[in-house]
Structure formats: structure tokens, C-alpha cells
Specification:
Length: 383
């Protein structure tokens, strides 16, 4: 279990707990023009790098026109400079997406394609970091050429399946994602549109990401979960498992049980009122995994902030009804006219309510909202 020290980071999903100090995970994307992309910025490896985040470095080793079969002049394996770059990178994860340009060879390429793919996987393993994960992709459909697409489906994909079984490497199925979605390719029916590159990146990301399985919340430095000084603070920390989770960041929140406290995006807890609170760290990787810790607060002057100040009224001016939002359940509501006469009063059992004012005369009215923390008055005009 790895503990993450706390820093402020801006990420797609908001403010998270601390980042780990570690060597970045290197991802090598091997392939043809569908990997190389349309431009330096419009390609799936570039998008994948954004999805994976700053703990990863993604390298684009795509070559336009590349085949897998070694006998072809355009074979990817013959691109010496690219191969040497892969070797020097020593990737931790390798994604191979080849086969589209081999489909023109007909069904007779099956044996050669499979044999050469097995050799390529062996080579990639030898070039990569120890324990590297290797993924091989089913090609996307060829929408503009039914004959070539039939080779993809009937020859290329079965061969890739056999390679996966023999070498124990995982398959990333891009074909199914694109099947029936020709709009994800440009007019040639082969190369992806901007949305197509995004679709490839998302499928690859979902295939290689490592999700959070467990979060343990504790006090930084091994301290006790207790605040006994008035307005005191505790720095919280979260231990995420597995330690190599793709997105190891958390979002902090606090649930007031019998006490009251606030917590910052950095995990700094401040006591407000005596009792107990539950500190919660929630994974931001879509798993919604949570870690929790009960903290006891004592010797507090009641420092709770007013909790109803977000109450809002609309529309204003009004004709038939007004709505109130942001209420504290259990608040007393009083409606008063300009003469100070109380026209109505009730207790709200919801945080948002609608009040009929259709029988009110035109003029100015006041709504008084009362709870244990404060009283707020809002004004509205009846037209």
C-alpha cells in the first residue's frame, strides 16, 4: 500500500489527493497510419496520453502504410529507426495495431500473418521493460472495400485471436466498436475522423487502465483521528490500492454525524463543533470506491458556518407562484406583507419548494426562512 502526500493538482475530474513521486509508465503504440494519425495532435496515442494522465508517457510508433507481414517492403518491422526507438524506450505497456494494410493480400496470407505476428510479439517482449503488458488489437472495419473487410473479419481477426492464446497477450477489440459506425471514418472508409480517433483512444484506455480497488483513510504522520483544540486541524491522507492504479486521486468530503467539520480539496480537516464526523475519500476513476474514517471532535466553540445562506427564490417578479431552493429541511417558512401581517407559515420537509401566490395582491412581500442556525429574509414582487 502506497501513501500519497498531498499536493494541489488540477485534473479533468477536479481537485484530488496528492500525487505519487514515481517514474512515469511508458506506453508504446505500434501500428500503421491509423496509429500514426492525421496530424501530430490528431491521433489516438495523443488522446490516450490525455486520458491516462501525467503518470504516463505515451509514444507514437505508427508508420503510414505499414503491414505486419515481414515479406512486404512496407513491413513495420523493417522501419529500423522506429524499431530502435521502441528498444530505447523500454516500454512498460505496448499496444500493437496492425493488419489493415495486410488485408489486401487476400485469405492466403493467414499462415504468414500469424507466424510473423508471433515473431513480432516475441521481439516486442524482448525490447520492453521486464513484466511489460502487451496488447494486440483487432483492426477497425474497412467500410469502403467489402472484400478487404471480409479478410479482416475472416482471416486477420482469427489469426490475432490465435496469437493472443499462444502468447498470453490481451486483445483490444476495436472492430466491434466501429462495426456499423462508418461515420467514425473519413470518406475513404479506412482512416478515422476526429471522433474515430477519440473512440479508439477510449477503447484502448478502458482496456489498459487499472482501476482503484480500495482506499484507506488515515491521519498524516500516523496521528490519532481526534481534534481536541478549538478550531483545530488534521491533515488527512489516502492510501490507494493497487498502488499502480491509473488514476490514484481522490476527492475529499466530510459527513457531519453528531459534530461538524469542513475539509478542503487538499484533505485538510477543520473542526467546527463537538461530536463525530466521517471523513470520506472517493476515487475519481469512475469506480466510486470510497475510504472512510471517523474523527472525534472535542473542546470546540460552535464554529459552524450558517448552512442555509444558499437559499434562493425565483422567479422575481412573480405571477402565480415562487420557488425556493437551497433550504435546510425543517426550516420554518413565514410569508409577510408590507404591513407586517403574517399571511402564511409552515415547516418545509424538502430542500426545494413551490409556493402559490396567485391569490396575493400586487405588491412587495417577504419570505422569512428560520432554522436553528440563522434567519434569512428574501423579498419578492407580486405582479
Amino acid at each position: 500500500m502506497k501513501l500519497f502526500s498531498v499536493f494541489l493538482i488540477a485534473a479533468i475530474l477536479g481537485m484530488h489527493n496528492a500525487i505519487q513521486s514515481q517514474t512515469k509508465i511508458k506506453v508504446a503504440c505500434i501500428g500503421n497510419s491509423i496509429t500514426a494519425g492525421a496530424t501530430v495532435d490528431l491521433n489516438y496515442p495523443k488522446i490516450l496520453g490525455t486520458l491516462l494522465g501525467f503518470n504516463y508517457t505515451v509514444y507514437n510508433f505508427g508508420k503510414s502504410g505499414a503491414t505486419l507481414c515481414f515479406s512486404q517492403a512496407s513491413a513495420w518491422i523493417k522501419e529500423t529507426a522506429i524499431v530502435n526507438n521502441v528498444k530505447s524506450t523500454k516500454p512498460d505497456i505496448v499496444i500493437i495495431k496492425l493488419g489493415t494494410n495486410d488485408a489486401g493480400g487476400g485469405s492466403g496470407i493467414a499462415a504468414e500473418f500469424k507466424a510473423d505476428y508471433l515473431k513480432l510479439v516475441d521481439s516486442v517482449i524482448s525490447w520492453s521493460a521486464p513484466g511489460a503488458k502487451i496488447y494486440i488489437c483487432y483492426p477497425i472495419p474497412i467500410f469502403s472495400n467489402p472484400t478487404s473487410d471480409a479478410i479482416i473479419t475472416g482471416t486477420i481477426i482469427p489469426a490475432i485471436t490465435d496469437v493472443s492464446t499462444q502468447k498470453g497477450v490481451e486483445i483490444i477489440d476495436l472492430n466491434t466498436r466501429f462495426k456499423g459506425h462508418s461515420e467514425l471514418c473519413v470518406a475513404d472508409g479506412i482512416h478515422p475522423t476526429s471522433e474515430g480517433f477519440q473512440a479508439i483512444a477510449k477503447v484502448v484506455f478502458d482496456s489498459i487502465k487499472i482501476v482503484v480497488a480500495k482506499i484507506t483513510v488515515s491521519v498524516s504522520g500516523g496521528g490519532m483521528p481526534v481534534i481536541s483544540t478549538n478550531g483545530g486541524k488534521l491533515q488527512m491522507q489516502a492510501a490507494v490500492e493497487p498502488t499502480n492504479a491509473t488514476n490514484p486521486y481522490v476527492k475529499w468530503s466530510v459527513e457531519n454525524i453528531t459534530g461538524s467539520a469542513t475539509i478542503t480539496a487538499l484533505g485538510s480537516l477543520t473542526a467546527k463543533a463537538n461530536g463525530t464526523v466521517k471523513v470520506v475519500a472517493t476515487a475519481t476513476d469512475s469506480t466510486d470506491i470510497k475510504g472512510e474514517l471517523i474523527v472525534t471532535l472535542s473542546n470546540q466553540s460552535d464554529l459552524r458556518e450558517p448552512i442555509m445562506m444558499s437559499a434562493e427564490l425565483y422567479p422575481n417578479p412573480a405571477n402565480d407562484q415562487v420557488s425556493l431552493t437551497g433550504l435546510l429541511i425543517g426550516s420554518e417558512i413565514e410569508i409577510i406583507d408590507q404591513a407586517g401581517t403574517k399571511l402564511n407559515s409552515f415547516t418545509t420537509l424538502e430542500s426545494s419548494i413551490t409556493i402559490s401566490v396567485s391569490n396575493f395582491k400586487a405588491g412587495v412581500y417577504y419570505i422569512k426562512i428560520i432554522n436553528s442556525s440563522e434567519t434569512k429574509v428574501v423579498t419578492f414582487i407580486k405582479e
